[in-house]
Amino acid sequence: MSKTLFDKVWDAHVVHKIEGGPDVLFIDRHLIHEVTSPVAFLGLRNRGIKVLYPERTFATADHNTPTINQHLPVEDPLSANQLKALEQNTAAYGIRHWGLGHNKNGIVHVIGPENGITQPGATIVCGDSHTSTHGAFGAIAFGIGTSEVEMVLSTQCIMQPKAKKMRITINGSLGKGVLPKDVALFIISKLTTSGATGYFVEYAGSVFEQMSMEGRMTVCNLSIEMGARGGMIAPDQTTFDYIQGREFSPKGADWDNVMAYWKTLKTDDDAVFDKELSFDGSEIEPMITYGTNPGMGIGITHEIPDAKQVEGGVATYEKSLGYMGFHEGDQMIGKKIDYVFLGSCTNGRIEDFRAFASLVKGKRKAEDVIVWLVPGSHIVEQQIKEEGLLNILTEAGFTLRQPGCSACLAMNDDKIPAGKYAVSTSNRNFEGRQGPGSRTLLASPLVAAAAAITGKVTDPRTLIQ
Amino acid sequence: MAYDSFNILKSTAVPLTIENVDTDQIIPARFLKATERVGFGDNLFRDWRYNPDSTPKGDFVLNNPVYKGKILVGGKNFGSGSSREHAAWAIYDYGFRCVVSSFFADIFRNNCLNIGVLPVQVSAGFLEKIFAAIYHDPDTELEVNLPEQTISILSTGDKESFDINSYKKSNMLNGFDDIDYLLNIQSDIEEFAKKLPL
Ligand code: SF4
Is the CB of residue A373 below 6 angstroms from any atom belonging to ligand 1? Predict the structure, then answer.
């Protein structure tokens, strides 16, 4: 029978099917961090059981960690306590741990791919909803709750019903200044934040085929923001070239064997999806959000729509604009910005820093804007230095912080103050997400760069030579 | 962590008529820094229940001694937002064993079933009847019968059936969780793992 890419990977991991219940799914790779793992380890201790395959779990500290002075003790006692718990738990159960200060430390969804842990055809889970990032490699990857973290630690399986299948095809090519982030924000603006609830999405078409791995990760990362369980893209030569030679990627004869398998990982021509959507790549502009969910996005040259034109309740829409201090019909271009955040598992990779640096090169940071540039990992930080990007950034008046989730969820000190506007390359613009009362405009690294040098919302295309 | 088994629950109920109750309201993000599963009940609906100086807000239903019981009845679309299981823990730790609503967010429903809180989805009309009965008489008892998959308002005799998949139902009836199930088939899992390419 014809199968989709999702079917092929899912079916290959079903240990048991339960009549009238979920599938028992084997998990190849498990990523953990300090916030959602401690209670799972506690559960293991209470039951008196061990970790079945410690070598399949990888731990990092990222959600709570400071992005300056990482060599000093963490000041917040609760955060310090979670970091210590992760260190002790991983040591007790023999799990690899890249904690604060380790040269492989970084955001969980950045370090998986860059170390070759993320591979095509794998099942990958983590107690964090943006685990969908890893789908960029043709893996099935999604976020889980803490009970499920305990299940994976103890049995390497979880129990879930199979999702429905959706394919989103975008052909054509992207215009000048349009980045993968814009493609994702465009799709979410079309589908709304619940448009893909219950589905696993496959992205197909020339736009994704031409994308780098970093770009594909940005797109798959944001799948969750339209309600999808996850997103994936069929592996191709771009994928294989990215993986080859990385620390945990297969070597020698193993590489040849997996390659033979990985090349079969694509949707069969006559396979059927529960839902199919397609868009034209040339329609997509640089995007920006104006409201309090990621579906409230528009092309940067557009005006904020009238409540009548949008789906859902008028009262909710007006409450959202009220929170943001915006009005129907407002132009986004020219709005004053107080903060810029470049980073997160959505846009904290080397390519994002290249894009940002390309735009600010030879220009100056705007005086009254505070800019936080936070690499996704130490490896990204190192690359920024080696490629000479740090010099460009420094000359333009910027400084680089140390890796972590930072202002994406503001669990550490990197909080946007109440009422202030931030152009952010992260993934959620919910009320209070970047700090109590913070106002977030989600956008690409180029739009962030344009805001950083002009102090307002600016179409980056007007600044690209 | 296996939990108390669930069979027939007869209890008064706490009415929370608000719609779209999200997980950030059930347990605010700043309480996610704990390393143990204790004390979450104290922070259930923290910002609705307490003022910033930790004095209770008199107008919130959990602070009204008239309403009590092991069943929480919530407005439509209960449990939307982040996947934090802490939301379900807070409800369990507070002492609720069952949440009734006319619509649940997917992940929240799953998290509840994983930790021993029974989510009961009823029609919008039946939800109205429950609220009306409780407001008429706060001592109104509800009976949730898991073996028969029914919920009744004992004072009025109104009754409706609800859905639950047979696997989760038998787990709840026995107080088993998924880990118990998985530990039982561990040798199959280990055999399976040997044949995987990765
Ligand atoms: S960067 Fe943000 S979304 Fe990504 S893992 Fe960290 S907190 Fe989650």
Answer: no
